[in-house]
Specification:
By secondary structure, this protein is an alpha/beta fold. It has 2 domains: 3-79 and 330-467, Aspartate Aminotransferase, domain 1 (Alpha-Beta Complex); 81-328, Type I PLP-dependent aspartate aminotransferase-like (Major domain) (Aspartate Aminotransferase, domain 2, 3-Layer(aba) Sandwich), CATH 3.40.640. 45% of the residues lie in helices and 14% in strands. It has helices at residues 3-8, 12-19, 23-30, 33-42, 69-72, 81-92, 105-117, 130-145, 162-165, 171-174, 192-201, 222-235, 288-294, 312-328, 330-346, 375-387, 394-404, 428-445, 451-467; strands at 50-52, 55-57, 63-66, 123-127, 150-153, 184-187, 206-209, 212-213, 218-219, 238-242, 267-270, 282-286, 355-361, 364-369, 406-407, 409-410, 417-420. The strands form 4 sheets. The protein has a 7-stranded mixed beta sheet, sandwiched between helices. Strand 13 (355-361) and strand 14 (364-369) form a beta hairpin. Helix 16 (375-387) runs parallel beside helix 19 (451-467). The longest helix is centred in the last third of the chain and has 18 residues, at 428-445. The model has no long low-confidence stretch (mean pLDDT 94).
Length: 468
């Protein structure tokens, strides 16, 4: 027991260690039994007591390469020493944390930093998450323009609260939750003609876009973004860019929209890794005119707020994260390692017929598989997809984890795409680790019949049984 535990009587470390063997049962019994069953089915039920930088360690102290990073929370790596020290320093300050009816220094400092990085915008509103950012942006755009209609793109993902879910292009998340927010309308991603037609049809408050869509890793063409900006301005429609996953250096720029010269959205949304992954946080960065249209009078100064928004610890972690970004070169490293990783993956496309396309920028990468041409592989492909349209990638991510200790994820429902969201801190050795592991799994899956196809077959049977 630590000295602090002796003083307080609460031994957190001892509690966790004494119950570590029960981790999966605690999930199954108290939180999400279905998720626990999925973890056990695909072999993702191992426990990781420790994480540092780009790596995880299991209970036998085996080291894993993390390509998931909590859905992109840990851009600067887990348990970064600067972030850990910032948390200690903040707690030792005995700061009031949040007063509500009094100004606090830390939120102003972090907002100032954000506006330095996005100089064409002038005001910041802090939230606790990405989906809260989307909800706030919807309110702000509809209030300022006095219009109810909001456009979103096909395949989009902006969160799972009701307003955000109304802008979700993935039907599997929407099933069972209709009706959605009135006035939301979907348009094809990347289609300027469709956007112009939609804007001409009815007055529209806002268009919300991801510069690189998370579900499948589809990048918006620069000409599309600039064209969308011009159309929105000519129609009095606010352009919202969702950088919740693409922001904070992931694509080799601080924000992905900054790859496009002259592109200046009206509202930028960031969250996830803004606090280094330590504390829930989000930020809505907007033009002055939008702020004035919402917080328009003194009695509307708190017309939108939240209890925990701009909490002291989140603000401290945000400032520490920017310090790390500015002093350790991780954004430049993301661009460099991403180029090497994408290049290495694209070199495999001609070699392996199941590999269709590699997409992405920096450390946000989509690996798409496609129907093979050879008879035996095509037979296996069709059998698996007949059973379930989303199972094939599982036959890739399972051996990556079990045989090579590489943690990855499927990029969405019923798609043959694996998404990589590594930390920005990868070394050349990490790139080689992943490429070697992935190549080995590809070689094995190109042997039909073979163990990986047997795994896929077992998954298909489990999926069919579950549906029944």
């Amino acid at each position: 027991m630590s000295s602090s535990s002796t003083e307080t009587g609460f031994d957190l470390r001892g509690l966790v260690e004494s119950r570590r063997d029960e981790t999966m049962d605690l999930l199954k019994d108290n939180i999400n039994p279905k998720l626990a069953k999925v973890f056990r089915t695909i072999g993702f039920d191992r426990v990781y007591p420790r994480g540092e930088g780009a790596y995880l360690w299991d209970r036998e102290d085996n080291k894993y390469l993390d390509c998931l990073t909590g859905y992109g929370m840990f851009n600067i790596g887990r348990n970064h020493p600067v972030l850990k020290q910032a948390v200690r320093d903040y707690l030792e300050m005995d700061d009031a944390w949040k007063i509500q009816m009094a100004p606090m220094t830390l939120p102003g400092l972090l907002a100032e930093k954000l506006l330095q990085k996005i100089p064409h915008l002038q005001k910041v509103h802090f939230t606790n998450s990405g989906t809260e950012c989307v909800e706030a942006a919807l309110k702000f755009a509809r209030c300022e323009t006095d219009r109810p209609r909001v456009l979103h793109a096909s395949r989009s993902f902006h969160g799972l609260t009701y307003g955000a879910l109304s802008l979700n292009g993935c039907e599997s998340f929407r099933e069972g939750f209709a009706p959605f927010m009135p006035g939301s309308a979907k348009i094809p991603f990347g289609d300027l003609a469709a956007l112009e037609e939609a804007l001409d049809t009815s007055p529209t408050a806002a268009l919300i876009l991801e510069p690189i869509q998370g579900k499948g890793v589809y990048e918006a063409d620069p000409a599309y973004l600039l064209g969308a900006q011009e159309l929105c301005r000519s129609h009095g429609t606010r352009l919202i860019v969702d950088e919740v996953q693409t922001g904070m250096g992931r694509t080799g720029k601080l924000f992905a929209y900054q790859h496009v010269e002259g592109f200046e959205p009206d509202i930028v949304l960031i969250a996830k890794s803004l606090s280094g992954g330590y504390v829930p946080i989000g930020a809505v960065i907007m033009r002055d005119e939008i702020y004035e249209g919402v917080f328009s009078t003194l009695d509307r100064c708190v017309v939108h707020s939240s209890t925990f928004g701009q909490g002291g610890l989140a603000m401290a972690c945000g400032l520490a994260t920017f310090h790390v970004m500015e002093t350790e070169g991780w954004i430049e490293n993301a661009a460099d390692k991403g180029e090497k990783l994408i290049g290495g993956l694209r070199a495999l496309v001609d070699e392996f017929e199941l590999l269709k396309e590699i997409r992405g920028k920096g450390m946000m990468i989509g690996i798409e598989f496609g129907e093979p041409t050879s008879f035996s592989l095509k037979t296996g492909w069709k059998l698996i997809h007949k059973a379930d349209g989303g199972l094939f990638p599982q036959a890739i991510i399972m051996p990556l984890l079990n045989q090579h200790r590489v943690l990855t994820q499927v990029a969405g429902h019923h798609v043959d795409i694996i998404k990589l969201l590594p930390t920005l801190t990868w070394s050349d050795e990490d790139v080689s680790w992943f490429l070697g592991a992935f190549t080995d799994v590809l070689k094995k899956v190109h042997k039909f019949p073979g163990p990986l196809w047997s795994t896929a077959k077992d998954l298909a049977k489990a999926a069919v049984t579950s549906r029944r």
